[in-house]
Amino acid sequence: MPESFAPAIQEGARAMGWKAVTLQGWGRSSSADCLAARPERSGEMAAALAPPGNRTLIAHGGGRSYGDAALNTGGAVVLTGRLDRILSFDPSTGLLVSEPGVTFAELLAIFLPRGFIAPVSPGTGFVTLGGALANDVHGKNHHGLGSIGDHVAWFDLLLPDGRLLRVAEATDPDLFRATIGGIGLTGIITAICLRLAAVPSNALTVQRRRVANLDDFLQGFKDAAGTAYSVGWIDALAQGAALGRGVLETAEASPHDGTFPSRKAKRFPIDAPGWLLNGLSVRAFNALYWRRASIVGQQTTASYAQFLYPLDAIEGWNRMYGKQGFRQFQCVVPFETGERALRRLLETIASAGAASFLAVLKVMGAQGRGMLSFGMPGYSLALDIPSRPGSEAVFAALERITRDAGGRIYLAKDSVMSSDGFNAMYSEAGAFRALRERIDPQRRLASDMSRRLKL
Amino acid sequence: MSSETWLILGASSAVARAFAREAAAHGAALLLAGRDMPDLECQAADLTIRHQVAAVPLRFDAGDLASHAGFVARCLSQAGGGFLNVFLAFGVMPDQADADADPTVAASMVTANFTGAASILAALAPALEAQGGGRVVALGSVAGDRGRKRNFLYGATKAALRTYLQGYAARLAKAGVRVLCIKAGPVDTAMTWPLPGLPFMVSPSAFASTAWRRARRGSGSTYLPSIWWPVMSIIRLLPTSIFNRLDI
Lengths: 455, 248
Fold this sequence. Notes:
The structure holds two protein chains of two kinds. By secondary structure, chain A is α+β, with helices and mostly antiparallel strands. Chain A has helices at 7-13, 45-48, 104-111, 129-134, 142-145, 173-179, 214-223, 279-292, 304-308, 335-352, 391-404, 419-425, 429-439, 448-452, and strands spanning 18-24, 31-37, 57-60, 76-79, 86-90, 95-98, 116-117, 152-158, 164-168, 188-195, 197-198, 203-211, 229-234, 246-253, 266-267, 298-303, 314-315, 326-333, 359-364, 378-386, 408-409. Chain B has a single domain (4-243), classed as NAD(P)-binding Rossmann-like Domain (Rossmann fold), CATH 3.40.50. In chain B, helix 7 links the parallel strand 6 and strand 7. In chain B, helix 1 runs parallel beside helix 2 (37-51), helix 1 packs across helix 7 and helix 5 (103-131) packs parallel to helix 6. The longest helix of chain B has 29 residues, at 103-131. The A-B interface holds A 5, 10, 13-19, 37-43, 82, 85-89, 99, 110 and B 12-14, 17, 36, 38-39, 42-43, 45-46, 49-50, 189-190, 193-197.
């Protein structure tokens, strides 16, 4: 975490355990100067609710939101990573109670040897459980198991007024639904009860095959509807007849244990220079990736860590996009309008030459439980777009296409969506604002995202 | 039953927590001693679930000297098997200016960092001698090597602890108990969080894994991280006329 010390606020902040820091979203194109506290015991959390100088506050977990969801320029953040204790686990039910700072990688390391995993896992193991709940994250099995909020029995929430509530759907449905996917704006999550899933082994059987174009992809997803995990890697630079070509990966829990060498993450050594990622180099990489996959399909055995968190093998991979960083775009579009929308999205990206490595295509299942949950039935497309002059226009075009198709943009990734666009995409935005008005009339909780989207 | 038990004194601190995790990962049973019982309960649950070892929270107040004998008796009755080992991690670091201005702040720091440590170590000594083995690891500080303007009272308490540990080690050596004083540099914890610009900062987990390795091996004193050995060697040797002009 980069830190800068602004002497003016440093002086007063010292006794309170606050200090001036500069935080970045994972995409490194959003950053914020703010005060930060980092409590080490959940008992200290209440004190963190009152940052100096009446600043607003937002919780900040693993720092893996790509945009500005967990940033608070000129305000304060409370870092939850040190609250990382597992409080109880019942193997007969799979129910786990944990503090918010426990990460998915830790859960996997602790519970996979006992035959349990988080039922739903995002694409990196560095996400904390608190952050996962606040963004209602999903993974490669959304079509079957939904997002993380679907597996949460209850959570403890420290409200802006200092009350600590145990929130379950039965007892307080509004607060429960507002907090799942509520990007930290309803309170600070201090404990989570999550139902882990039993698995037969430590391994997955993975099928990979080359896919010629978008039609082939959508058919492939239909055929894989009964498979536990499915994900498509699209060469977002391919155009014309090859539009939407890529690699389809599906996986099922393997009945047999595998032996896997322990993965030691390599660190991305430098901020890559801007010229490295150009149309040519990315085009070459994407083409190579596509050609390496077998046409007829190839079956391998993979560890959960390899399959769920492929990029975690390179620590700090976000530096690949250089100092200016990148923004990630992820949307979901309903099945009915989806095929046409995907075509328009891919055409827009390809014709803008917005050099991006592989885009991720997924089929999503049910609507999430949260008011602002991202998940809904349809196709989800995610890709990185390096920050360059002109990329704003690309994002505006992508937002328009998504909105017109009746889809929505994922808040965990977003840093540029318009407030109008948000209101059109999230039908429960009004209910969410009404709940905030009730529990936080003074808007003590706020983030760069909440101001941008007028939440 | 575990092959050894570690008593963690001041178990709620981030360094102590990391050390307890390290010990539990190596199969040790834990006695978690401190004042914040709800926090210690969380920690005991975490260690038990993560590493499937016994972990027992125990109420302990370093400043309540009269309670130390009773505390040792409770420790011995709760110990989870094998030798009892001790990791002494408690301590406070208020501002030097606050300690200068308010003698009660100064006195409570001396009590917490030194008097309390000496008292509990003295109370534990007979039990350690009786078992004829085990280890004592205590958190000293590079601040104890030379009194600096910034925090010489804190440094003085850690220097006193270091001197105490030298004699304590000599006494327990006969019984086969090894004593290690870790001269710690800044660790990235709540204690150092608000302080700007601390050099060679290490994470609690990196600190703990090295501390664990050195605890298995050594006795005497050790700098952690090791870079502090050359740095403090130079700082100790600086002539007073130069040292006094430095703003450190």
